[in-house]
Design a protein that fits this description.
The complex is a heterodimer. Chain A contains no helices and eleven strands. Chain A is an all-beta fold. In chain A, a hairpin with a 6-residue loop joins β4 and β5. Chain B is an all-beta fold. Chain B is 0% helix and 50% strand. The termini of chain B are far apart. The interface between A and B is medium-sized, with 26 and 27 residues.
């Protein structure tokens, strides 16, 4: 049973527009959420995180929003750039050192 | 430059062979992890370690074994490889909750 769900396997966005990647989770014990980015033939790289005590965290073009009541988080990328084309993994942690990953969403930035 | 390395990057072997996947990090992290990922699927934790001589099994059952004799080294061994072991294996290390640094992965194919 998946605890972290990314229901969109892929997403295409025009360069310069906003990319919104969504993620739902089922375990209310999760208190730390992360987004990782993965290019082909490379390992995932950490992108941005958010603690459950916050509802928004921003880092440059990347913003993560957390809605605890809906058990939903999203990653906004604005403006989208060609180098953003990658697979994005949503992940969650219950506060120990383990991370539960979603299946990923492949983002295509169109010229 | 601090980094995390995995060798080999690709491995094709026959059934019944013993293999060891190498993972080393130069960041001095106490915590290290092994994940298994099939295409289009989430990363599954198969082993982790909190330091020298510490090893634990992860959430996904695996026939592999690990050792942690040195802080920087966390090899994974399969005593007798089978086609069902065909997958990508990702090694990671970290210090803080959630933020893990991943190696490039080893893509294993067992014929």
């Amino acid at each position: 049973d998946q605890q972290v769900k990314q229901n969109s396997p892929s997403l295409s966005v025009q360069e310069g527009r906003i990319s919104i990647l969504n993620c739902d989770y089922t375990n209310s014990m999760f208190d730390y959420f992360l987004w990782y980015k993965k290019y082909p033939a490379e390992g995932p790289t950490f992108l941005i995180s958010i603690s459950s005590i916050k509802d928004k965290n921003e880092d440059g073009r990347f913003t993560v929003f957390l809605n605890k009541s809906a058990k939903h988080l999203s990653l906004h990328i604005v403006p989208s750039q060609p180098g953003d084309s990658a697979v994005y993994f949503c992940a969650a942690s219950p506060g120990d050192d383990k991370i539960i990953f979603g299946k990923g969403t492949r983002l295509h930035i169109l010229p | 430059e601090a980094d995390i390395y995995q060798t080999p990057r690709y491995l094709v072997i026959g059934t019944g062979k013993k293999i060891t996947l190498e993972c080393s990090q130069t960041m001095g992290h106490d915590k290290m992890y092994w994940y298994q990922q099939d295409p289009g699927m989430e990363l599954h934790l198969i082993h982790y370690s909190y330091g020298v001589n510490s090893t634990e099994k992860g959430d996904l059952s695996s026939e592999s074994t690990v050792s942690r004799i040195r802080t920087e080294h966390f090899p994974l061994t399969l005593e007798s490889a089978r086609p069902s072991h065909t997958s990508q294996y990702l090694c990671a290390s970290g210090m803080n909750v959630g933020e893990q640094f991943f190696g490039p992965g080893t893509r294993l194919t067992v014929l």
